[in-house]
């Protein structure tokens, strides 16, 4: 009966593609978590079974100490707690700044309700894909902007291309 219905076959193929996508996403997350675990164990000398006993301040202190010894961050010789915070929340900070400067269209005026802030998960995902992850994004990797994005004279061309 399944072979007779093209609609059911289409839905099964779509479900299989979705689950395959989710499986790949989970595997990528697991690899990322494994790298983080390895960094904590080898670089910061924090055993995985003892990680729950460390405060965030102790982890930051070890990270700052490691920066002094191995110079992980090439842009700064001395790393501070604020630098670590900014690095972790970099993309969130950009998004918040764009909303504060009214560059992202999240405020709408609805009849009877007045001004409303509205940002769906889909719109947020699309904006992040455009600005941070996609092939035409502003970043060349997770940590640094493309050189042409740093020049003030290239802003109009970048905005037109975006």
Automatic annotation (TrEMBL):
GO terms for cellular component: autophagosome; phagophore assembly site membrane. The keyword Cell inner membrane does not apply. It comes from the Eukaryota. InterPro entries: Autophagy-rel_prot_9 (IPR007241). Keywords: Autophagy, Lipid transport, Membrane, Transmembrane, Transmembrane helix, Transport. It is found in: Preautophagosomal structure membrane. Its main location: membrane. It is a multi-pass membrane protein. The chain crosses the membrane at residues 6-24. One of its GO terms (biological process) is lipid transport. Belongs to the ATG9 family. PANTHER family: APG9 AUTOPHAGY 9, AUTOPHAGY-RELATED PROTEIN 9B. Phospholipid scramblase involved in autophagy. Cycles between the preautophagosomal structure/phagophore assembly site (PAS) and the cytoplasmic vesicle pool and supplies membrane for the growing autophagosome. Lipid scramblase activity plays a key role in preautophagosomal structure/phagophore assembly by distributing the phospholipids that arrive through ATG2 from the cytoplasmic to the luminal leaflet of the bilayer, thereby driving autophagosomal membrane expansion. This is Autophagy-related protein 9.
């Amino acid at each position: 009966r399944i072979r007779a219905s093209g609609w059911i076959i289409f839905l099964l193929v779509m479900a299989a593609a979705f689950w395959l996508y989710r499986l790949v996403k989970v595997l990528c997350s697991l690899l990322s978590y494994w790298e983080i675990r390895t960094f904590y164990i080898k670089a910061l000398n924090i055993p995985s079974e003892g990680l729950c006993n460390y405060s965030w301040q102790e982890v930051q202190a070890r990270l700052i100490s490691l920066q002094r010894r191995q110079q992980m961050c090439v842009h700064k010789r001395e790393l501070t707690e604020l630098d670590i915070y900014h690095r972790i929340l970099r993309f969130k900070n950009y998004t918040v700044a764009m909303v504060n400067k009214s560059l992202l269209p999240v405020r709408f005026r609805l009849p009877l309700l007045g001004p409303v802030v509205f940002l769906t998960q889909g719109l947020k995902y699309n904006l992040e894909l455009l600005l941070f992850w996609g092939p035409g994004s502003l970043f060349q990797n997770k940590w640094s902007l493309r050189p042409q994005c740093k020049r003030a004279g290239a802003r109009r061309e970048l905005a037109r291309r975006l």
